[in-house]
# Entry
Amino acid sequence: MSLTLLCLYTHRYSLALVMTLVLVTASTDDSSPPTNITAVLGDTTTFRCHIQKLGSPVIRMYIQRVIKDSQEIFINGFDSSRKLDVHPEYQKRTKVNRTDLSMELTNVSISDEGLYKCVVFSDTMDKEMPKIHLKVTANYRVPTMEKKCSKHGDGAAGKSCQLSCSSVGGYPQSAVKWEGLNLSLINVIHNESSEDLYSKTWTINQTIMYNCDQPTNVSCAVEGAVSPAVSICEKEPFSIEVITAIVVVLVIVLLIILVLVWMKFCRGRSSTARSGDDEEVSVAFK
Ligand SMILES: *[C@@H]1O[C@H](CO)[C@@H](O)[C@H](O)[C@H]1NC(C)=O
Ligand SMILES: *[C@@H]1O[C@H](CO)[C@@H](O)[C@H](O)[C@H]1NC(C)=O
Ligand SMILES: *[C@@H]1O[C@H](CO)[C@@H](O)[C@H](O)[C@H]1NC(C)=O
Ligand SMILES: *[C@@H]1O[C@H](CO)[C@@H](O)[C@H](O)[C@H]1NC(C)=O
Ligand SMILES: *[C@@H]1O[C@H](CO)[C@@H](O)[C@H](O)[C@H]1NC(C)=O
Ligand SMILES: *[C@@H]1O[C@H](CO)[C@@H](O)[C@H](O)[C@H]1NC(C)=O
Ligand SMILES: *[C@@H]1O[C@H](CO)[C@@H](O)[C@H](O)[C@H]1NC(C)=O
# Structure
């Protein structure tokens, strides 16, 4: 039921009827779905309790955190007739604006996630706003990827690669996505999530086995964060052993040629030595 209607009724009917209507209004708002707001870890967020067309000025406003259905914690607010007791933790981190009925919360942490509600009081009525659900997110760091590739043991073509992807510092919990791979050929061998007890952020780590016979560029992603691409199963024109073998053969061939040339030279030289006495004479004359 809208407030305008409520005012109309106020003029036309008895106070008793108005009181029941107020109760009805309050319970209707209470059960309506919460408004969602999202904040990034460490940022500042604003809870807005602004009510349109509230007949008389607001004299009190409470912003409370709803822990369970019946359990609520007072966060901050104002009361035009007295000073409110605010928990020191929230005293530091919250600021209430009486003009637009909002509250700013700074340095949002993951434990701030949850349900809140505003209760607004004026001379004529109390009004409970629809609840506000604060969702907190934290961005995952750019994932790191490691690869370990080896030839198939059974001598089949292609390679078998073990790929590990890990990312830290995100919230909520998420999962690793692989890009560039045929998803139906992925074999997950290790999947791990761990929560940091202090910051409540998640570290996730997944290791897969992947067989490939085509060169592939692969990267892994966690939410918006994508690792640099890594090439797997590159075509290696010659393996180290083949190159070593070629070098050894070349060296041997070169040695044989050298030996042959040397032998030929020596044979030629010994024959000239046998038939060339003039040479020895010329040497003797020096
Ligand atoms: C708030 O988020 C919840 C899920 O987190 C969703 O079911 C609901 O519809 C959202 N409410 C609004 C008003 O968007
Ligand atoms: C309160 O909100 C109004 C309207 O948004 C703004 O003009 C004013 O500067 C705010 N006051 C404070 C103390 O932040
Ligand atoms: C924000 O909160 C975290 C703990 O939740 C604290 O370690 C950090 O010092 C706070 N930062 C500021 C600027 O207050
Ligand atoms: C993925 O691998 C499966 C099984 O080998 C094959 O049937 C399918 O066509 C492949 N998909 C793509 C996109 O290559
Ligand atoms: C890995 O763990 C995450 C979080 O526990 C889960 O969401 C995901 O489905 C798991 N993936 C596999 C392939 O088991
Ligand atoms: C992820 O898991 C793999 C396999 O258990 C491990 O080798 C690697 O060190 C882990 N990485 C991180 C950052 O925890
Ligand atoms: C992989 O990336 C490299 C460098 O960006 C590129 O030259 C190559 O063509 C890519 N290979 C495939 C199979 O996409």
User: Anything to note?
Assistant: The mean pLDDT is 82.
